[in-house]
Specification:
heterodimer; A: 445 residues; alpha/beta; Rossmann fold; 16 helices; 22 strands; B: 514 residues; mainly alpha; two-stranded antiparallel sheet; 22 helices
Chain lengths: 445, 514
């Protein structure tokens, strides 16, 4: 595979390192010093130039490239680079953006701006934080339909309260579908009387809140519940998205922000979060707000030294778990060495997400489960497709393959699929399907 | 010192408003011709008012309107139109010995009409004493004032369209004005259309009831007359016995229309566009309906236990234990008083005190924003209560940032401040007026009880109409001394325009640019 990376910053370098092991990689950047360094750091071809210019892209051979990754620090540059690439050839384009507004626009059609896949670093970081703290028992968590639907795979331990129960007794959520159980490398499609055993991997698809609730059932001790006290320090974009996603999952976090106007804006946008305006490095204030009794503190301030100070303060007064953002990738280890439980670097998170996606090698939002025994994919049902107007029971009967309808979103709202649910045009359906049937199913939608 | 308000332009626009309002007198003129009574009264009035209107229009050939002129125009228009509206009363009753022959009484009756208050100083109301034409004019003033004279002007006059939003915002009740369409004239037309549609529907329903024999007194004249005063939450009736003169089915028919009149008309527009959710998810509508239900239920229980079962209750006496009557009288009185209509089917001024307290409480609530109802309004109370709760939270933990929310919407801090200011002004003015009425009455030997003085104040400021004691729903404001009536005219005026625009015109900052 031939891949072009526009932008040789931290993210581009990380992706380049990972991709260059198996592919032909060409890195383009305007900064000739950086390009000079890359030449020796990575086993790639380099080119100094503007990745948004058609001439430069043509010269590096975008016409026959399979992949273009735009990973500069500037959102618009990345979008333009993808657009420019599509005018010359037809590589699969991946853009990195910081601002969630671009991502939300892109999510509407998942084609906008000539971008085939978009990773929003702030959003991705927030999701990673929430998954780290919210779903410790999950092996894999993937958002679908712009975050309205989550697919999660859990490892059920022998000590879990749900071990030995049948699915019908465990499934007390309105908007949760038990999609699959993997036992001894074998996939079982669960029915009401399927008994869950220790060591099973259970795959569920549903609303973020019900997935969170189910995680609570599996590991009540490790998974935070809605009563748990979560404090977010810093109301930047990452802090905001973290609070928002936590709200979606049924938590009521506290959010500390110093700037008055920003605090007001956050309070308006986050109805389920208690926003407080105060300097977070004030130890007396943290004491007064009983931060030492908080279960989790997440530090998302804009400078590493501030994050470190707040995290250390919190650890010292006795907060259970402390998670911090680290802006410089090289400090991640240092943060963890001084006792901060989890240190997360947004660039590494972004690079990992992009790399993960290049490995799946398909043009749809998809999660691959258990060495490709099954795939979960999101399909938009087109006008006049064979699925339109039929009930799910009817479709199930007519298909001779393992297919589970996990969730449906219609006009941005979640619908829990039942036997009598009728599929309409423009519905997004999230289905678990065996790999051999993927192409046929896509043809039906 | 330079003046920053263009008086000539304002005067010219005022002339246009007066000219068009006098065209509305064609309706009573037609009635006058049909019954062949007082024809000359309306012919002469139209002649006078059109001349005044055209004369004023000449002040400025090409008037331009800015925000200051808009504010002044709306404020002045209402008192000017009330004066114009008083002319037929004066002409028709001159030398008849009617109370309306006194200019202040005539102006009171007219202001009470246009502001949809419904307080009356007319003695011996009825068609044997006054012409049908005069009585229908009295009803019509309320109908014109209900949805707003200026809103009507914006709807029909393209030249007002440019600054129409400013005009409509000043006149429309409620803390924030909601544009429904990109063009303000379109919005004004939509509002009037919904208003006209409901009016016609009520008239048709009442007429059908009459023809079915279920409402003997509700002949066409009465049906039209009450159609004109129900939707604007007015309360005038050509019958001396108000709605008590009509059968129970007629009363039940009017109740839902009073509730509609107190609802935000924008919601009906959404409903017509097929958006049912907006109506039922609107926090103010839910609170409004909830309050109506709660107060009606409470009052019905009180009436069921005999609160309106004494000889003093001449109209609409409710026998102890009469479930149906208790329910009807409770629903009607709450439906009428809370949104400031002022119709009555029972003499609540003669009820037991605890039942009167429920009615007094309802007077302080008011209708919804964007309705034709007066008073403080449900949305303001909701926001005042939420802002108060926030104060308590922040007293305990000052770092908490908590916007005031209504449903999913965040209320802007400037709006919250405006609402707190308005509510405070409202209560202060109510208090001072109460004291003034009591003192002024005492001076001429017209002694008021505390509840009478309070109700006189809230009933005029809130554009409700009836109060307690001698101001009860079957009583009259006639006996008040002249200066009290002048103050009441002022209260009705500022109450209809929601205080702030009128008082703003009285500030020095409004007139000076430096």
């Amino acid at each position: 595979m031939k891949a072009i990376i526009v932008g040789a910053g931290e993210v581009g370098t990380l992706i380049g390192r990972s991709l260059s092991q198996r592919n032909d990689v060409i890195v383009v950047d305007v900064d000739d010093h950086r390009i000079e360094e890359i030449k020796y750091e990575l086993d790639v071809l380099t080119r100094v130039g503007d990745g948004t210019s058609g001439e430069v892209l043509e010269e590096v051979g975008v016409g026959d490239a399979d992949l273009l990754i735009a990973s500069t620090d500037d959102d618009k540059t990345n979008l333009v680079a993808c657009g420019a690439a599509k005018t010359i050839g037809d590589p699969f384009t991946i853009a990195r953006v910081r601002h969630a507004t671009f991502k939300r626009t892109w999510d509407r059609t998942q084609r906008a701006f000539d971008v085939d896949f978009m990773v929003c670093s702030d959003l991705q970081t927030a999701e990673t934080i929430v998954n780290v703290i919210g779903l410790p028992a999950a092996i894999d968590v993937d958002p679908f339909a712009g975050g309205l639907v989550h697919m999660a795979e859990f490892n059920v331990s022998a000590e879990s309260p749900i071990t030995g129960e049948v699915v019908a007794d465990v499934d007390h959520f309105d908007s949760l579908t038990f999609a699959a159980v993997f036992r001894d490398e074998e996939m079982i499609l669960p029915r009401g009387d399927t008994r869950i055993k220790g060591g099973d991997h259970v795959v569920v698809i549903g609303s973020p809140q019900s997935v969170q609730g189910f995680a609570q059932d599996i590991e009540p001790d490790k998974t935070p519940g809605s009563a748990d006290d979560i404090v977010i320090v810093g109301g930047g974009e990452i802090g905001y998205h973290t609070a928002r996603i936590l709200e979606d999952r049924g938590f009521s976090p506290r959010l500390l922000e110093t700037d008055e106007r920003r605090a007001r804006q956050l309070a308006e946008d986050l109805p389920g979060t208690l926003v407080m305006q105060h300097e977070p490095t004030d130890a007396e204030f943290l004491e007064r707000e009983h931060v030492h009794e908080a279960d989790i503190l997440i530090s998302t301030l804009d400078a590493d030294e501030k994050n470190m100070l707040v995290s250390l303060l919190a650890k010292r007064i006795g907060t259970d778990r402390v998670i911090s953002i680290v802006d410089h990738g090289s400090y991640v280890q240092l943060f963890e060495e001084i006792g901060i439980d989890v240190a997360i670097n947004p660039r590494i998170v972004t690079a990992e997400e992009i790399t993960r996606f290049t490995h799946t090698d398909v043009a749809v939002n998809v999660a691959v489960l258990e060495n490709d025994q099954a795939e979960v994919l999101e399909l938009e049902v087109s006008e006049g497709a064979r699925l339109v107007g039929r009930t799910i029971r009817d479709i199930d009967r007519s298909i001779d393959a393992d297919v589970v309808f996990g969730a449906i979103t219609r006009d941005g709202t979640f619908i829990a699929p039942r036997g009598e649910t009728v599929i309409e045009a423009h519905d997004h359906i999230i289905v678990l399907v065996e790999p051999s049937f993927v192409d046929q199913l896509m043809a039906m939608a | 010192m330079t003046r920053r308000v263009d008086l000539r332009a304002t005067g010219s626009f005022l002339g246009t408003v007066i000219k068009y309002v006098s065209f509305a007198m064609l309706i009573p003129l037609v009635v006058a011709v049909i019954y062949w009574e007082d024809v000359w009264v309306f012919l002469l009035t139209i002649l006078i008012t059109v001349s005044i209107g055209i004369g004023l229009e000449r002040l400025d050939d090409d008037p331009a309107m800015g925000p200051a002129e808009a504010l002044l125009l709306v404020t002045i228009s209402w008192i000017a139109v009330s004066m114009i509206g008083a002319i037929p009363y004066l002409l028709a009753t001159y030398g008849t010995g009617s109370s309306l022959a006194h200019p202040i009484n005539a102006l009171f009756e007219s202001t009470s009409g246009f502001t949809t208050t419904g307080a009356t100083v007319m003695n011996d109301i009825g068609t044997d004493r006054y012409s049908h034409a005069l009585l229908i004019w009295r009803q019509l003033t309320q109908w014109l004032g209900g949805m707003g004279i200026i809103v009507l002007m914006v709807a029909i006059l393209p030249e007002l369209g440019v600054n129409g939003a400013q005009l409509v915002r000043t006149e429309a009740p409620g803390p924030v004005f909601q544009k429904l369409t990109p063009r303000i004239a379109q919005t004004a037309r939509v509002l009037w259309l919904v208003y006209v549609a409901f009016t016609i529907l009520l008239i048709v329903l009442l007429t059908i009831l009459h023809h079915l024999g279920l409402a003997p007194n509700m002949h066409l004249f009465n049906a039209v007359a009450h159609g004109f005063t129900t939707l604007p939450t007015g309360g005038y009736s050509p019958e001396a016995d108000s709605i008590a003169a009509f059968s129970a089915p007629a009363q039940w028919t009017i109740i839902p229309f009073m509730l509609i009149a107190g609802t935000n008309f924008a919601l009906f527009w959404y409903l017509l566009s097929g958006d049912v959710r907006s109506l039922f998810e609107d926090p103010e509508f839910r609170a409004y309906i909830g309050l109506i239900g709660l107060l009606t239920a409470t009052l019905a229980i009180v009436l069921y236990h005999g609160a309106a079962d004494s000889d003093a209750v001449e109209w609409g006496r409710v026998a102890e234990g009469a479930l149906n009557d208790s329910l009807r009288e409770a629903a009607f009185q709450i439906g009428s008083i809370m949104n400031s209509t002022g119709y009555a089917t029972s003499d609540f001024a003669a009820w037991d005190t605890h039942a009167q307290m429920i009615v007094l409480f309802a007077m302080f609530i008011g209708g919804s924003a964007g309705s034709t109802g007066g008073g403080i309004k449900v949305i303001r109370w909701l926001i005042v209560l939420k802002a108060a709760r926030r104060e308590l939270t922040q007293a305990a933990r000052p770092e908490i940032v908590q916007p005031v929310r209504l449903g999913n919407a965040v209320i802007d801090e400037a709006v919250v401040r405006g609402i707190l200011g308005f509510t405070l002004l409202y209560v202060v003015i109510f208090g001072f007026a109460t004291i003034f009425f009591a003192l002024d009455g005492m001076q001429v030997g017209y002694d008021l009880t505390v509840i009478e003085a309070m109700s006189a104040s809230i009933a005029t400021l809130g554009n409700i109409g009836p109060g307690f004691g001698r101001l009860g729903p079957f009583g009259s404001y006639l006996e008040f001394p002249v200066e009290t009536k002048v103050v009441m005219i002022f209260l009705m005026w500022i109450g209809r325009l929601e205080i702030v625009p009128v008082l703003a015109v009285f500030t020095g900052a409004f007139w000076r640019s430096s």
